[in-house]
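Q: What would this chain look like folded?
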Amino acid sequence: MAKLHKRSHASVENSHSLVIPEAGDWALRLAKIALQIRQSSDLPTILQTTVEAVQQLLGCDRALIYRFEPNGSSTVTVEAVSAPQWSLLDRDTQDACFQACWLEPLQENQIAEFWAPLEVKANLAVPLRRESQLWGLLMAHSCTSPHPWTDGEIDSLQHIAVQAELAIDQAERIAQLQATQTALEVQVTRCTQALAQANQQLSAKVEECQAIATTLGQVQDERFQLAAIVESSQDAIVSKTLDGIITSWNSAAEQLFGYGKAEAIGQSIYLLIPPDRQSEEILIFQRVHRGERVESYETQRLHKNGSLIDVALTISPIHDENGAVIGASKIARDIRDRKRSERRQHETEQALQATQEQFRAFMNHAPVLAWMVDRDGIVNYGNAEWLAFVGHTVQSALGRSIHDLVPPEFSQGYLHNNHQIINSQYSDSQSNNSQGSGDLTQTGGVLETIEQGRALNGVLHTYLVRKF
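A: My prediction, written as structure tokens:
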């Protein structure tokens, strides 16, 4: 059964008395529709805008998007109708012809049988695809009488479908990226909280051990007190001779590196060092031999199973009773969770950067002039078409006022329109600006205006501009 959702009613004239506009006007209307569809990244808004544009452009009784869900079900997701009686929403529809073969070419007689009970006299449908898969159908219906669809109407519906596919793909990618970013932020927050809690627990444990050591100090020697602290630490603590032979190995070291105490003591410290990092041990030995302490050195060490472990090392020299350096102690803290979080954050940043590069590449190939200015009219973006029009490079245009980049006779009009959209002070009324601002209308927070400019060859151009 098809589940039917959002509805929009529009009052239009009889679809069969539709007068096809001139080619230039038709192309202009298609361009405006493309801008309307692509201006939003919200999927429901994109779909509603698409069907309303189709219904208004073709003058049909009903326009709808029929979506195929991944689980095999099908849904009339959104519609625009000229009269309430043509609505398919709130009605169950048996759609076996789609469910049975929605990946196969649809048979004309099946479509006719499917739409006949719904009073469809003429049906025009084009596919909506995403990532080479059939996502749904964009459909136009004539419900009052049969209607032979013209080539222009078919081409227009296909053109709108292409714009809708691009907008749907962008909206879903943005939603996926936002969901991934949110999930990563949650994970980072949890890891940070867990690390803070672990540090608090470690601090509490160290304080507890220090208190115990103080209590036992009257009956036990200093070596036993130190051993108790080391053994109860949550960090791996290892000591070695100046020859690199392991002499002590606490429980945390067993858990971190996988070797038992008996397996590790007496072995070379190189047992834990990857071949490509053994030069690090030489530099550490030189510093320890000079009596220096190495603070929080991040590196990698080897687990018994051969895997690499991200650790933060603190290395301190061990002195004898005469102050001579006789070995070194190492404290290894497991930082794998933090490193994983950093890698995920880096991947997210790369994904965001890739998205920005895709946007710039798309705009540079779009056959329109596109630019962005701040409240003061300072240019902070311009695509290749616009830069060519004003005769500047990215380096020479960005950071300059729009007043300096367009002919003086038009610059004030540009700035005037910019301030209107920024301050949200324009109205539904139309007005003519002597400096080239043209007709101003307000449409859902977007300023639509006619502006003029002179190209480098001196030719005067008039543009329909949408500012938002």
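The mean pLDDT is 77.
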